[in-house]
Amino acid sequence: MKETKDSSQRLNKAEKSWILYDVANSAFIMIVTATIPIYFRSLAEGSGMSGTSATSLWGSATSISILILALLSPVLGAIADYENMKKKIFTIFFVIAIAGGFLFTFAPGWLSFLIFFIISRIGYAACNIFYDAMLIDVTTDERMDRVSTCGYAFGYIGSCIPFVAGLLLILNCDTIGLPMVTATRISFVITMVWWIIMSIPLYKNVHQQYSLPHEPHVFAATFKRLGATFQKLAKDKRMLFFIIGYFCYIDGVYTIISMATTYGGEVGIDSNAMVLALLLTQFVAFPCSILSGTLAKKFGSMRMIKIFIVMYMAICLFGYGLDTELEFWILAVSVGICQGGIQALSRSYYGKIIPKDESSEYFGFFDVFGKFADFFGPLIISFCAYFFHNSKYGVLSLILLFAVGLILITLSEKQPTAAE
């Protein structure tokens, strides 16, 4: 992409407000990754449940929320493309996410906690469909890489603020005279309040710029449009190859993110070291995400995505031989360098090639592939752990996913669009 005056200007109010929502919701996914599973396990084991059963239930809850959203995403996205609907539907799921968050915070037992967590997780994931689709409303194609990477970058660093505040409260609960359960619940409240406050600028300054005219029979028209979109995807080989390639490589990315602490524990890494390594990944990802946007402006977003894929293949190879705490720290830094850039540039590249007035619908499909990757990826690790009695082979097998993804997105560049 050639640098233009437009792409080098300062971020405007709408762009900054959009970025701040990434700061808002990233705090939630931070506690979902680090704190909430530990809290649920304590609730379940406190009621007499075995640790294995608690782990199985937690995995099932995560899969259920992912599966529900994967099936609903295209329909929700298609409805949101109609005039003034994007923010309205976003608001419905935002309320669901926040309400579910407060409800699971004060849930008295593991079952009610699990139910409210699923509700909150569904609301969070649904909001992201419309949030991603708002990218085309706040900026231009020339600035999209920069804005998208800033979203991930500030999301990484911003999410650490409420997380660290909550973590310090939990670690010092004895000193300040709070039961650990109460301190943990307060940390959840801090995250929810942070999420609400940081979302206010998006509501004030982000408005739907691209839309379809209202239909008299919205639901019938929506399903008709979905069928037409499937046909368009089948004809547009460039978009089809890209989105299937995206599914493959993002599968590897999400698997590394979600399974890092599990894998670290298996090879004997101390749990405190893993939490600190997770924080380090966030801090490293901040400048590297911004840098990836600058490099994409010079070399092109697709070329940078390919470079990140190759780097991830090297990470998998390194992870296969990992057996010391120092190597785990090196792995954390390496992931931090890549993960923000590859996710942000994938989002912005996709935003450039889709029809602007159908952005929510197309991002609904984009979300389906991302959600099923999050659902499918850990199964690869589990399969290898079961049959080979070692997760290292699962980590190594992820290279194949990255390789297939690289081949497919390379093929996508050589394809004409449906319009051509």
List keywords for this structure.
420 residues; mainly alpha; Growth Hormone, Chain: A; 84% helix
Quick summary of this structure?
This protein has 420 residues and is mainly α. The chain contains 17 helices and no strands. It has one domain: Growth Hormone, Chain: A (Up-down Bundle), CATH 1.20.1250.20.
Set out the fold topology.
Blueprint: H1 5-8, H2 13-34, H3 36-46, H4 51-80, H5 86-105, H6 110-133, H7 135-138, H8 144-171, H9 173-176, H10 180-205, H11 218-235, H12 237-266, H13 271-299, H14 301-320, H15 325-353, H16 359-388, H17 392-413
Helix pairs in contact: 2-8, 2-10, 3-4, 3-6, 4-5, 4-6, 4-11, 4-16, 5-6, 5-10, 6-16, 8-10, 8-13, 8-15, 12-15, 12-16, 12-17, 13-14, 13-15, 14-15, 14-17, 16-17
How many structural domains?
1
The fraction of residues assigned to DSSP E strands is under 5%
Task: From the 3D structure, determine the CATH topology.
Answer: Growth Hormone, Chain: A
Oligomer: single chain
InterPro entries: Atg22-like (IPR024671), ATG22/LtaA_families (IPR050495), MFS_dom (IPR020846), MFS_trans_sf (IPR036259)
Keywords: Membrane, Transmembrane, Transmembrane helix, Transport
GO molecular function: transmembrane transporter activity
Protein name: MFS transporter
